[in-house]
Amino acid sequence: FRGLGETKKCLHLSILINVLHFVASFVFINILKLDIMGSALSLNLARLVGGMAAVLMLISQKSSIEIRPRHVFRIDWRIQKEIFRIGIPCGMEQLFMNGGAMLVQVYIAKLGTASVAANAVSNSIFSVLYAAPSAVATLAVTIVGQCIGAKRKDEAIYYIKRLSWLSEIVILISCAVVYLLAKPITILGGMEAESARLCLQMVAFITITKPISWVLSFIPAYGMRAAGDVKFSMITSCASMWLCRVSLCIFL
Question: The pTM is what?
Answer without folding.
Answer: 0.72
